[in-house]
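New to this. Please check this record:
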Amino acid sequence: MDVDAVKARVRRVWDMGDYSYLSKRLEPASRELCDACAVSAGQEVLDVAAGDGNFALACAREGASVVASDFAPGMVARGRARSEEEGCSIEWVEADAEELPFEEGRFDCAGSVFGMMIAPRPERVAHELFRVVRPGNTVGLTAWVPNGIFAELFAIGRRFSPLPAGVPHAEDWGDEAVVRERLGGLAAHLECERRTLTWEADSPETFGAELAEFAPTFAAAREGLSSEQFEQLRAETLDLVRRRNSASDGTLRIDAEYLISVARKRG
């Protein structure tokens, strides 16, 4: 695996599009993780692969002192602007989840909501998350489950833009057995639970069009694919959205399952 090339690609993709569209839909999972990690006033919390700051903001609202980090400089800029606009004091840092620039044992909690799962070397990410947390304290993660709608969306995307050899699938972090294997040597205690985010829209067509217009991965696909390939990507995505739709009145309702994992670092 050419790790530098993989990371350059990831950084470029997530600096594209309008992430705020996805962020609003993902925000409830950040509140769920904040609660599951029992974040409270006076704690020091790190949000890893923070996007524009959903988890960081949830923790700051609880009174925690928060640092938010992301690999993409554009995302850091968006997150900093958002936290300032919302009146939350959050320190924003451009940082690689595989090489966090923080001292050992600095934080009471390190969390990541659908972010660190795209890092190419999961064992390194796991090591870094636990390294920066104090013994006896908490690491929390969320990831889309295998066989869920997002795993299917990822699979469609990989057909048009294959992952480099050796890069694991992001949804592996949503498999409890995989999480226990990756974190077992680091955690004294680990709890995993499947939860659901419900996504709604006026219609499947509206949702498909919004994904194609705003999602960073679609912005990258629009730039990297031919017009025919991009339209095929859109068509396959819309077919999936229609198939997963549980609404019967012409609107859209999709229940997207994810795994929430909360681990306690060994003392």
In short: The longest strand covers residues 187-201. DSSP finds ten helices and seven strands in the chain. The first helix runs from residue 3 to 14.
